[in-house]
Amino acid sequence: MDKNETQRPQLLRRNIVLERCGMSTSTLYRLMDQQRFPPPVRIGGRAVAWVESEINEWIEARIKERDNAA
């Protein structure tokens, strides 16, 4: 079986997303309001999380923007 077939989506809580992206909570929510950051998934009550692959894609896109600007 292919590795990708067995991988399941992983959810990241806010503190992990902030650490990986190097931003503050206010910046995270501002970017979401501007539709410039992936939306969270509600996981219960008031708890939310982000899909890890979407966060990785967002980070990769920032790197590509940087490289294309040079």
Automatic annotation (TrEMBL):
UniProt superkingdom: Bacteria
InterPro entries: AlpA, DNA-bd_dom_put_sf, Prophage_regulatory_activator
Name of the molecule in the record: AlpA family transcriptional regulator
